[in-house]
Amino acid sequence: xxxxxxxxxxxxxxxxxxxxxxxxxxxxxxxxxxxxxxxxxxxxxxxxxxxxxxxxxxxxxxxxxxxxxxxxxxxxxxxxxxxxxxxxxxxxxxxxxxxxxxxxxxxxxxxxxxxxxxxxxxxxxxxxxxxxxxxxxxxxxxxxxxxxxxxxxxxxxxxxxxxxxxxxxxxxxxxxxxxxxxxxxxxxxxxxxxxxxxxxxxxxxxxxxxxxxxxxxxxxxxxxxxxxxxxxxxxxxxxxxxxxxxxxxxxxxxxxxxxxxxxxxxxxxxxxxxxxxxxxxxxxxxxxxxxxxxxxxxxxxxxxxxxxxxxxxxxxxxxxxxxxxxxxxxxxxxxxxxxxxxxx
Length: 344
Description:
With 344 residues, this protein is α+β, with helices and mostly antiparallel strands. The protein has eleven helices and eleven strands.
């Protein structure tokens, strides 16, 4: 048993009474104790013992009240999701009034990430507005960035939104993305934020050149301008890094999230077993076997599973010999919400 920390707390007994208590936190249990002083020696009388695996931890400042599985089936939320495509602000205000969502950037960003049916086109426009910069930062904060290569993080991020045609909004979104990615990786890269931003736009331009859009179709991953400031300093970018990013984009196009119509068509062609996807896992707990099923085997379909502080085994699903693929998810020692992103 490993001792972690000792805390002084107030135990609320009823509306009129609270008692001073001490909490001793171990790796597998939590002890609630009463402090006793005898002959100038501090002693503690154990009042309750709790197994930590039966406790629910909340991070400080995390005021999100969302329960994804509950909300996604709530008719009020379904109405708000439909309304989001027309008027995002009115839709969110409606959820605030119904006390289903806190008016905080973290709660809003989590809602936009997790609720199925959100208009990805309207989402890109909404988080890119200047007055929603805090929501944009919280939204990108949920994307795996630390120790993840720039093009891979960019690929994951663009899978969650559709970029609008407004160049100012595009620049604002990519500036925020570059800022957060660089802040998470500045200890392992030799270039600054400005160079990171230039690399982001270079990757977007490279993606458009290697995978040109069809005629008469605008490509939302090909912005026409980039308002970046110049830097007088020079930074060394490893040639191997540039080659790896080039090869990654050459082999697989960076794509944005599909619109709702395309998403409905794809989900009709791909179905999963009725096994309920685990919404919560204890520390180091492994989920049951999760099976993904296609109508027919297809050697050209590969699904990559990107996890945030979770272990997915295997993290690449193929359907060459069977129309089914299975995987498991193992939780880490860290608590809090985690993100799983599936890319095809």
